[in-house]
Amino acid sequence: MAPDAKAGLATRSIHYDSDLSGPEVAANISTTTTFRHPSPKQIASKPEGYYSDKWDASEPSRDIYSRYTQPTLTRVERVLSSIIGQPTVVYPSGISSAFAVLLLVRPDVIAITEGYHGCHASLEVYRRLRGEDQSVIKLDDEYPNGKKLLCWVETPLNPTGESRSIAAYAKRARAVGGTVGVDATFAPPPLQDPFKWGADVVMHSGTKYFAGHSDTLCGTVSVRNKEDWLKLWHDRTYTGSNIGSLDTWLLLRSLRTLSVRVNRQSATATALAQWLASLTRAESGSDLDGPGGVVEKVWHTSLQEDRAELLGEGKQMEKGPATFGMLLKKPEYATNLPHSLKFFVPATSLGGVESLIEQRSLSDPNADPRLIRLSIGLEDFEDLKRDLVQGFRNVIQVRLHAASASSARFLS
């Protein structure tokens, strides 16, 4: 059955590679590294030749060596290109996909502010290779003319879940001939389409929502044309940045449920963010819909002052992100809360089916020690809310006991 480009996102996630399958219903794992050469007769029957420049790496007529192509990866990239809306290359991690963007664009100037600390570390590797002729500026600085600019917009922002206007930065970058790159990890389809708002290249740490089960490392880069796709494929092939066989298969398996997972996670996260924000207005010592005096601030696209411009049907963010941040009143609250919960797992990363919670300073030394990042999974809203309520009560009690013990030692 030929792919149906008019089908909905959820349908394409399941069926867009169906013409590449055999009689099996579930896709096979391709573990071979090398493939049999065709016979001279078979080669002669193919007008495009064997190693000719007409061989298409995106839809290979044959597989030669798995560093070039392999059947399961071809299926994954077919599905991803459809649901993202542009030609897509898959990488072994999110950070390798970020570096692939730098190799593709080769910017003289990078405009970037905040966001995932790993991308900043990867940028430093690129700068070391480039030498002194490469510079970094802030996103809101004036963009220079006459230099190759990469405007790097991470939206929604890690770790807070705040959204930035892609269109606003795209307009500024276009004025000086710059390239707009978007890290859209926090808002995969169906939440956001960065290309619709002016992005030239879009990356995802696919480990998060595309894979979605906390068991797969992968990354993606999507571009607007086949020429850039081939450049990405060439760079991946000859830098050896290839995803492994098992991860490729796990990613394809996970894409089948992307839409239902992300929509559910988004709805639950938005409801939790709204409820948590209400606790910031509760007085210390009160405990009506949860204890007051614990949560200082909550970040989420649905809570931004400019949310009317960014969030809603037909807007940049169709729905809110499923990962967001909250600032607690005291560092010890943030230290103890992740280990006071039943349904939230105290761990880094995000996007999995299980809810995760992290005191962000454990992974990012520059983060405020009061900052908590929440990645919402597929559990029921009321269970997660109840879990947080008892967790807040527990950290208050831990602090009161510590204060009481300290006072007793002082009096003795």
UniProtKB/TrEMBL annotation:
InterPro entries in alphabetical order: Cys/Met-Metab_PyrdxlP-dep_enz, Cys_met_metab_PP, PyrdxlP-dep_Trfase, PyrdxlP-dep_Trfase_major, PyrdxlP-dep_Trfase_small
Q: Which residues carry this modification: N6-(pyridoxal phosphate)lysine?
A: K208
Q: What keywords are assigned to this protein? A: Pyridoxal phosphate
| An annotated GO cellular component | cytoplasm
Instruction: List, in alphabetical order, the Gene Ontology terms for molecular function in this entry.
Output: carbon-sulfur lyase activity; pyridoxal phosphate binding
Q: Which GO terms describe its biological process?
A: transsulfuration
Q: Which cofactor does it need?
A: pyridoxal 5'-phosphate
UniProt cross-references to Pfam families, sorted A to Z: Cys_Met_Meta_PP (PF01053)
Which PROSITE patterns is this protein grouped with? CYS_MET_METAB_PP (PS00868)
Q: Which domain of life is it from?
A: Eukaryota
Family under the similarity heading: Belongs to the trans-sulfuration enzymes family.
What is this protein identified as? Cystathionine gamma-synthase
Q: Which organism is it from?
A: Rhodotorula toruloides (Yeast)
